[in-house]
């Protein structure tokens, strides 16, 4: 059975909307997704460090549309692992696990990989929104479109704009 590594933030968890909501609470100003195209997450969100290190940030993130439905279908045909660079934000570890347990109950703790660098991941397929995780990957890489990567060419990776697109490609 083929294996898939799926990133969490920006692929399953809609952290962009979480950042936008928290920026609005912080400043009273609503950021528009269109205006964030091509900006790194750190440039787009001036309070990023504060927010990702705040209790509740990760556990309250909304889901990316169609992610649960399609991931469950993939789970029936592939060995699926959720791979998140969670050690970058140590407070996120328990929140990410609780978030996955709530939204993806078919994913067991054995399928959750919380790490620092994803260079050690050797699955057949990786779905991620960051080049830094895909560029060293030896398998088939899928770049999940988010504003920070939207203006960059996908390079050797296949760009996917949604979970529905992944469904068509992988199922």
UniProtKB/TrEMBL annotation:
GO biological process, alphabetically ordered: pyrimidine deoxyribonucleotide catabolic process
Domain of life: Bacteria
Residue positions of the active site: 7 (nucleophile), 9 (proton donor)
Gene3D superfamilies cross-referenced by the UniProt entry: Deoxyribonucleotidase, domain 2 (1.10.40.40), HAD superfamily/HAD-like (3.40.50.1000)
GO function terms (MF aspect): 5'-nucleotidase activity
InterPro entries xrefs: 5'(3')-deoxyribonucleotidase, HAD-like_sf, HAD_sf
Family: Belongs to the 5'(3')-deoxyribonucleotidase family.
Name of protein: 5'(3')-deoxyribonucleotidase
Taxonomic placement: Bacteria, Pseudomonadati, Bacteroidota, Cytophagia, Cytophagales
């Amino acid at each position: 059975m083929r294996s898939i590594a799926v990133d969490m933030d920006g692929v399953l968890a809609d952290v962009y909307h979480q950042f936008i909501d928290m920026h609005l609470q912080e400043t009273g100003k609503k950021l528009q997704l269109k205006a964030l195209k091509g900006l790194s997450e750190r440039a787009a969100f001036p309070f990023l460090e504060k927010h990702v290190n705040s209790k509740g940030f990760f556990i309250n993130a909304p889901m990316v549309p169609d992610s649960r439905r399609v991931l469950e279908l993939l789970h029936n045909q592939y060995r699926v692992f959720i791979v998140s660079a969670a050690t970058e934000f140590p407070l996120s570890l328990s929140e990410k696990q609780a978030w996955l347990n709530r939204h993806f109950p078919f994913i067991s703790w054995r399928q959750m990989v919380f790490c620092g660098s994803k260079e050690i991941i050797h699955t057949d397929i990786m779905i991620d929104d960051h080049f830094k995780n895909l560029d060293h990957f030896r398998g088939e890489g899928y770049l999940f479109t988010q504003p920070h990567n939207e203006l960059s060419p996908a390079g050797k990776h296949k760009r996917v704009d949604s979970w529905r697109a992944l469904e068509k490609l992988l199922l």
